[in-house]
Please model this.
Amino acid sequence: MNTEDARELLEEIDGYIENLFDTSDEVLEAILRDSRRGGLPEINVSPNQGRLLRLLIEIAGARRILEIGTLGGYSAIHLARGLPDDGELISLEIDEHHAEVARNNIERAALSAIVEVRVGDAHELLSDLIENGEGPFDLVFIDADKEGYPDYLDASLLLVRPGSLILGDNTIRGGTVLDPREDTALATREFNRRIAEDPRLGGIVLPLIRERIDGMTIAKVL
Ligand code: SAH
Ligand code: DHB
Ligand code: MG
Model:
């Protein structure tokens, strides 16, 4: 099978899973529509991946989540839906317009009571969280600029407890991590290597199927 055929088959399989589990709904679709209207890039997690995030939260019994990279709040809504009513999600976003669209979307999803979007450079916001003793979080979802991933991992390790999960999105970079030629692929390769080698972590990289860049790293703090 050639690469094009393989890609088509993988996308059909992703569609099959999406229909099987009915992974979207009106609120999620409205949110994607508003994000598109707001001119945001369409680089949110896929519906299936959103379901996986929610499932991981429910399995882990997470009550406090930290997200790095909010965009329009699509993944935040999947994450928050896995939380109990008194749970908490703090999501970090550098772009004020993205954050504003996200806040409106989160309001629409009736999740404003448990989701807080903080605007600023994640490097700085993470330092503040550490300094102010705002940890530990039960789950950290890293999905901002790929060059920042190794630093975000270091910061995350200061904001978790044994048993917490650290997730990294887009850690296959469409296969370019195999032979990295650009900074983003180099950084995600470094991120994956560190997770694999760090004795404080047990992890795996999950290849994910979607039309754009794929893959998610999942690690448990030992
Ligand atoms: N998690 C979102 C997608 C995030 S896209 C979802 O799946 O729905 C990546 C986001 O990270 C963008 O909104 C971008 O503005 C933001 N970002 C990029 N660099 C950042 C930084 N240094 N600090 C905080 N956010 C950053
Ligand atoms: C890109 C970023 C993402 O977080 C994503 O899920 C897909 C693509 C990107 O920068 O191209
Ligand atoms: Mg992503």
